[in-house]
Amino acid sequence: MKRSLLFLTLFLLLPLPSYAEEKNSLAMSEWARRFDNLTPEEKNDYIQHSKKARRFFEQKRIFESLESVGQAQAIYLDDPNMWNLKGSCYMEFRDFVQAAQCFKNTLQLNPNSNASNFNLGEIYYVTAQWEKCLELFTKLTKNFEQLLEKMEKEHSEASAMETEFIDSITARSRKLLAIEKRQKTIAQMIHVSRFKMFVSYRKLGNINSAEEISSLYTELDDSPFFYYAKAVKAFENNENQVASESLGQAKRIFKDETLIHSWQDSLVEAGYLVSFYGDNNEDNNNLMDL
User: Fold this and answer.
1) pLDDT over 70, % of the chain
2) Which of 14, 173, 215, 232 has its CB surrounded by the most CB atoms within 10 Å?
3) Which domains does the chain have, with CATH numbers?
4) Which of 116 and 284 is assigned the larger pLDDT?
5) For the CA atoms of 164, 167, 170, 172, what is the dihedral angle to 10 degrees?
6) How many degrees, rounded to 5, is the angle at CA 100 between CA 33 and CA 4?
7) Model confidence pLDDT, tens digit, residues 126-158
């Protein structure tokens, strides 16, 4: 099996709404309403299969995850969570045709799924469909920025809550930590999305637009964007030593190996670094019509 794409890990932290969350929502979605028509036994079996599928995926037991997805979908087919997870499994196998269809199925059921939109955008990025990639990541960046603003408001409101009892103080602290964790993840997705836009613009020859995005970052930011953008420019100018030094700086500054690997993968997928697995675009020409 070819190496996994690490952007999927980030979106395990930002799951699609579960059935329980949809049921508690004032605007219950159509797929959740249809799910509610299942018998109690069917619901229980479905939930157990879906939990196993997600657990197997997180453990990188992809074949078993796909099997559990199939068992869940044999009971109920219209849960966008399962289509997104199924697409993520196919991404692990780098089967972009199957993965893209799964993500499109998710979006038919839940058009506002940032997770599936991001994953579909990643397919366009890996297969060098730069215009589609740019369009999707431009949209996603705006969505993530709005989501971050919403989270910042929630954080301010939670911080301002007056509490008198220790249990309330503990609950508030846990809520703040949860919000801060999501804020960090969303901010990371904004940086990654902008980098995909930066590369797409350069691949399309629109250097000015690429520079507008690049100018948002300096070496003082809490993102490796600056160093990887510098490496991209160096690679394009055949200044491989400069590119190598910039990547080395990023690795020394940002200690999170998962973070660095995900950015490194972005260079591999765009053709700036050689992949151990060969050409990313081989056997995917039929994706050009997706």
Assistant:
1) 82
2) 232
3) 17-112 (1.25.40.10), 130-269 (no CATH)
4) 116
5) -60
6) 110
7) 999 999 999 999 999 999 999 989 888 888 877
CA–centroid distance for 17 within its chain:
15
Residue 272: both structure tokens together: 């700036």
**Other beta carbons within 10 Å of 222:** 11
The Cα–Cα gap between 234 and 290 comes to: 32
Tokens of 18: 């579960």
Q: Determine the 3-state secondary structure of 77 from DSSP.
A: coil
Residue 22 has pLDDT above 70, yes or no: no
Which of 191, 181, 110 has its CA nearest to residue 145?
191
**Predicted local confidence at residue 8, as pLDDT:** 46
CA distance linking residue 60 with residue 239, whole number of Å: 37
Give whole-number Cα distances, 25 to 15, 55, 118, 165, in Å.
16, 25, 24, 29
* Residue 47, number of CB atoms within 10 A of its CB: 16
State the Cα angle at 123 between 119 and 126, rounded to 5°. 130
Residue 69's alpha-carbon distances to 32, 35, 95, 97, 192, in angstroms, are 17, 16, 17, 18, 29
pTM for the full predicted model: 0.81
Which candidate, 142, 150, 89, places its Cα nearest to that of 117? 142
